[in-house]
């Protein structure tokens, strides 16, 4: 009755020619409809045994929508993760049925949206240029989450609450997000036999390995993942990569010392690791030709802000010195060097996009997960890989030749799966990996759709 009355008011307003009044009534009807739909979904989730959750919906165009939920996973102020869904809709608030779904876990510095749905937060990205939107437009139901530290505001100064956040904590949060995804999908008419893939990028892959390791010990009926996609990350080094293992041990020693001294927040770039990254991007955009105040290395000529941003993205070792990166020549975004051999301009990702991306780094991160990752890479005993041989789902390893690249292949061989596909984006010989496709190029490069996203989609379709 309320909807019919509202429709009548719209028709009357149009009849008398008052278009402004008609538009206002239409807006009120739409807002009320959104609230009703969100409330109905919240009640359905409550009936399914999940806590009461409010749902937000953002129309993305081309029939896609972005849904978000704030999910409490502990008692602390920041024990909250944001769960995301990007999906094709049959009508507003009506997700289209899909037999394939993927749950994505981001890595350091960037949450779900800048990592996987970048076209919605960067004006320099084409409207259809993001992995999540690409998969959703091809009838994959895309899910993911923001890890707890993404929601910590920049004004926070006391990080004692991070003391107990570990890889296990984040793996449990992934499980909570998967549970929500499965419940909502069932409400949308999906079958329990429909596949859910788990994709983890960078440290998100390390977290996903930990989740798969734990899930393998549950009864089959309680498992939620039917396929695993680790993206450009090393879990353990192969015996022949002894130098890289030693580098990890050095990073572990430094980080563990900081943790033992009482630090609970930070990473390889020190406390508040996202702050300098964000500043590098801001200066490159707002004062590209000014001399960089951030470059602390010795250069033949002091680089400009634009050049330093390219150097920072194209030569990670320059930021980590004297520590070494995870692999030789590891970098975020590949670059083309100048005559001196230093990165001069970006190779695959447009510079404007790169500078936008750097500015979206969140300021803080829990230190424990970084220390534990380095311990695992160092070859030390950790509780996150004892049952990898029990993980027997199909696996796709997607790597960037200038990122973790081939060094991540050994890690997937530690799993018990006999269905393993390896796809590494490579444009140069291994000896030139410092100039090849980078860790973030996988999502930001002009040709990422052809080189990365389409192979991921095709693998999903084949499984």
Question: How does this structure look, described?
Answer:
There is one protein chain. By secondary structure, this protein is an alpha/beta fold. The protein has 2 domains: 43 residues; 410 residues, 3-Layer(aba) Sandwich (Rossmann fold). β9 and β10 form a beta hairpin. The protein is globular. The N terminus is likely disordered.
Provide a concise account of the structure shown.
With 463 residues, this protein is α/β, with parallel strands linked by helices. The chain has 15 helices and 12 strands. β1 and β2 (64-72) form a beta hairpin.
Main traits of this protein?
alpha/beta; Rossmann fold; 2 domains; two-stranded antiparallel ribbon; 15 helices; disordered N terminus
CATH superfamily name of the largest domain?
A: Alpha/Beta hydrolase fold, catalytic domain
Number of helices: 15
Number of domains: 2
Regarding quaternary structure, how should these chains be classified? single chain
Major β-sheet annotation:
10 strands, mixed
Instruction: Indicate the CATH topology of the largest domain.
Output: Rossmann fold
Determine the strand fraction and express it as a percent band. 15-25%
Radius of gyration: 23 Å
Task: Report the CATH architecture of the largest domain.
Answer: 3-Layer(aba) Sandwich
Average pLDDT metric:
90
Low-confidence parts: 1-17
SSE run: HHEEEEEHHEHEHEHHHHEEHHEHEHH
Which structural class matches the secondary elements?
Answer: alpha/beta
- Strands, count: 12
Cα distance spanning the termini: 47 Å
Shape: globular
What share of the residues lie within helices? 25-40%
- Text of the CATH class of the largest domain: Alpha Beta
């Amino acid at each position: 009755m309320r909807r019919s009355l509202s429709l009548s008011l719209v028709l009357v307003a149009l009849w008398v020619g008052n278009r402004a009044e008609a538009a206002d009534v239409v807006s009120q009807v739409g807002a009320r409809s959104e609230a009703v739909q969100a409330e109905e979904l919240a009640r359905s989730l409550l009936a399914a045994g999940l806590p009461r959750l409010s749902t937000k919906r953002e129309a993305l165009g081309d029939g896609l929508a972005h849904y978000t939920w704030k999910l409490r996973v502990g008692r602390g102020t920041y024990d909250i993760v944001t769960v995301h869904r990007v999906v094709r809709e049959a009508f507003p608030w009506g997700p289209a049925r899909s037999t394939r779904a993927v749950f994505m876990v981001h890595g350091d510095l960037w949450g779900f949206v800048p990592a996987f749905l970048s076209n919605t937060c960067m004006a320099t990205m084409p409207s259809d240029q993001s992995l999540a939107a690409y998969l959703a437009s091809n009838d994959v139901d895309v899910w993911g989450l923001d890890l707890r530290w993404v929601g910590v505001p920049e004004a926070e100064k006391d990080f004692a609450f991070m003391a107990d956040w570990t890889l296990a904590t984040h793996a449990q949060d992934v499980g909570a997000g998967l549970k929500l995804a499965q419940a909502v999908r069932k409400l949308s008419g999906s079958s329990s036999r429909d596949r859910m893939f788990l994709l983890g990028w960078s440290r998100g892959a390390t977290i996903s390995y930990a989740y798969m390791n734990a899930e393998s010990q549950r009864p089959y009926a309680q498992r939620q993942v039917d396929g695993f996609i680790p993206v450009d990350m090393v879990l353990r080094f192969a015996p022949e990569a002894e130098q890289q293992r030693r580098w990890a041990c050095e990073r572990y020693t430094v980080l563990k010392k900081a943790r033992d001294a009482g630090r609970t927040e930070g990473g390889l770039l020190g406390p508040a690791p996202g702050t300098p990254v964000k500043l590098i991007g801001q200066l490159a955009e707002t004062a590209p030709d000014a001399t960089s105040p951030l470059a602390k290395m010795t250069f033949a000529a002091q680089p400009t802000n634009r050049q330093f941003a390219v150097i920072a993205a194209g030569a990670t070792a320059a930021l980590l010195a004297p520590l070494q990166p995870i692999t030789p020549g590891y970098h975020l975004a590949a670059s083309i060097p100048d005559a001196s051999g230093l990165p001069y301009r970006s190779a695959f990702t447009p510079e404007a996009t790169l500078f936008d991306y750097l500015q979206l780094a969140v300021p803080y991160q829990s230190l424990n997960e970084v220390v534990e990752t380095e311990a695992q890479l160092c070859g030390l005993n950790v509780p996150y890989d004892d049952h990898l041989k029990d993980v027997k789902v199909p696996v796709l390893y997607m790597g960037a030749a200038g990122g973790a690249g081939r060094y991540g292949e050994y890690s997937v061989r530690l799993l018990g799966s006999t269905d393993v596909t390896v796809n590494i984006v490579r444009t140069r010989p291994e000896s030139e990996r410092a100039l090849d496709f980078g860790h973030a190029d996988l999502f930001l490069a002009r040709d990422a759709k052809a080189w990365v996203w389409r192979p991921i989609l095709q693998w999903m379709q084949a499984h």
